[in-house]
Design goal:
mainly alpha
């Protein structure tokens, strides 16, 4: 009987239960406000979610 090779899993490994970000907060903004937020996040080298989380939690 030939050996069956296990298929390689693609993607990153799952995060530990306490490390996964599972909650969301929705905020309504005007188009110009969103663009301003996106530009500030980009200037810091972060994506919008990471930058917003940092500002909300640490105010820096």
């Amino acid at each position: 009987m030939p050996w069956k090779k296990k298929p390689n899993r693609l993607g990153r490994p799952p995060k530990a239960p306490g490390d996964a970000l599972s909650e969301t907060i929705r905020v309504r903004v005007r188009p110009g406000e969103r663009r301003s937020i996106e530009l500030k996040a980009k200037a810091k080298g972060m994506n919008l979610s990471t930058w917003a989380r940092w500002k909300l939690l640490y105010g820096k």
